[in-house]
């Protein structure tokens, strides 16, 4: 039996033209050597006429750029899929062709994506956590467009049914907490659920940094691949100050003689202008340490608690910070000034909306609870 190689990449977004991005020949060769390539298309294209006050959208040339790299499938179950409304979503799907999955009408969003390669049937399901719009997390409203919801009661049943249709089943969840490099206990439990119900592997995205991987009941779970390439600003000169933001983790699955195996490849976004393979030993050691935490509950709990405290005390999760911490006057003044400016521009969500997002998002709610316990 011939082997099959599947390349999984993390989140992709480029607001500036992708003509500014170069890809190393080594990475191109790796992509070309795979039979199937999958990426999370994180942000939609801007519809015409253009919408006002939309902070997140991708350049129209992004689909062609990913086509040139050889990507075959695009997960569209993510929290930004409908940032440009239905029109932006439909334009994005039209540009990517019949290669998206995890979103659309209610039936389309939960529909299994099947690819047959070398006589082997592969199934893919993409799922997303609750967002402000475009996720089917309300059983009363299923007549619109949206993304498959990770905690819908039908998901476990769909996984069991899907496993009967394919030889190998891959679940691609978009969930977790941004900017911390270990998953929450709730995330670990849910992703293991997918394996229990029949998935052969789980490959997660959303936290914008790699979060390690483990073998559970003989099957592999990647909690987050981080960013394959992510620049949502107008210029490539913008520098994100988030840890591990520019470090991607790619997973290559090899299917041989009815068995799955995985290898990992670290990638690096350099100055928002290039993507290359990263052989940095420090990164490899960091990934190894994160994986070790997942196997040692005492070390994991200490590391996670410290990460949540840093997150809550900073600016990444301000609603947690308001509940838990007193910030210095200078920090509060800066935040207030920014809020006033954004309100004048009509770009600042009200507190009610922020609280609603916290309550609807299982991962954020769990993080708040853990922060308040300390």
Helix and strand layout, with pairings?
Blueprint: E1 4-14, E2 22-23, H1 25-32, E3 36-41, H2 62-69, E4 73-75, H3 85-96, E5 100-101, E6 103-104, H4 106-110, E7 113-117, E8 120-128, E9 146-147, H5 154-163, E10 168-174, H6 185-196, E11 201-203, E12 213-216, E13 219-222, E14 227-231, E15 247-256, E16 259-270, E17 274-277, H7 281-293, H8 297-313, H9 318-324, H10 329-344, H11 351-360, H12 362-373
Parallel strand pairs: 1-3, 1-14, 2-17, 3-4, 4-5, 8-10, 10-11, 11-13
Antiparallel strand pairs: 1-15, 6-9, 7-8, 12-13, 15-16, 16-17
Helix pairs in contact: 8-12
- Any low-confidence stretches, pLDDT <50, length ≥5? none
Strand segment tally? 17
Mind telling me the C-alpha Rg? Answer: 20 Å
How confident overall, as mean pLDDT? 90
Tell the overall outline.
globular
Number of domains: 2
Give a structural overview.
The longest helix has 17 residues, at 297-313. The protein has helices spanning 25-32, 62-69, 85-96, 106-110, 154-163, 185-196, 281-293, 297-313, 318-324, 329-344, 351-360, 362-373, and strands at 4-14, 22-23, 36-41, 73-75, 100-101, 103-104, 113-117, 120-128, 146-147, 168-174, 201-203, 213-216, 219-222, 227-231, 247-256, 259-270, 274-277. 35% of the residues lie in helices and 24% in strands. By secondary structure, the protein is α/β, with parallel strands linked by helices. The chain starts with a strand and ends with a helix. The mean pLDDT is 90. Strands 1, 2, 3, 4, 5, 14, 15, 16 and 17 form a 9-stranded mixed β-sheet that branches. Helix 8 (297-313) packs across helix 12 (362-373). It is globular and about 65 Å long. It has 2 domains: 4-295, Purple Acid Phosphatase, chain A, domain 2; 300-373, no CATH class.
